[in-house]
Write a structure and sequence with these properties.
Strand content: under 5%
Structural class: mainly alpha
CATH superfamily of the largest domain: Hypothetical protein af1432
CATH class of the largest domain: Mainly Alpha
Distance between the termini: 40 Å
Largest sheet: none
Length: 285
Amino acid sequence: MSDTQDEQLSTDDLNQHLATLEIPVCPAIVMQVMAEAQKDEPDLRALAKTISGDVGMSALAIKLANSAAFSNGAPVTSVSQALARLGTRNVVCVVVAVALKNSVTGVPAAVLESFWNRTSLMAIAAGVVARHHYGIPPDLAYTYALFHDAAIPVMMRHFPDYQKVIAAATAQGTLLVTVEDQHFQCTHAIVGALLVRNWGLPSAIREAVRFHHDKDVYELPAKTLPSLGLSLIAVTHVAEHLASELRQEQDLDVGEAHFNQARRHLGIDDHDMEELREELQAALS
């Protein structure tokens, strides 16, 4: 079934396509942190204690707090300091990022490391673009960017020849999602939508993941893809395309057409684009 054949898949459609796939479930620590963060007055001490108990989460929280996107003074050296600088919503992003990375197994370590390194950079880049006065919550953009391609290693684990599909897309200069559909009648956008649903993330993220490779994504009606979901896609399209350009990589995810549509949707002119290049260069260095 083509990713662009229907405007919207029902839950039954998703389950039918993915019945044989093992979709990672949301870990208890994520639900615990999300529940605390959503309180009117979150217990910051409790959040810091929970995150400090996980080496990966602690390291990422401190790293993010010291990144170009958040650094505004002396270096952060503790989880408590990172929490104070990042705020609870961004700390939830850290927890989700590490939990998502840890939830996918059964793929060669080197492959996973390369994938998650790139995904983490894309998430930071999406947050940078979102903060560039477009009125889109940076934490939501960060989380969406983490998940929009997160189903790739899930499919890699399930389909033994998935690496060949990636190689074929690269050789042909074709979007990965197109080659996925030809080989598996299923794409990482469809798998990713169920993954997001399983983790209980906002519907805007789920809808954006589902449609981010639709060829007509910028023309879909609001009832299918609400404006916030489309804006998340646009921000990440810009971030991915520019990151590929800055890293001198082939862009097999966005393409020139979607990049230009994203620019128009966000109202980014050439001057804005140059500023974004400079900001992303600093953030990704």
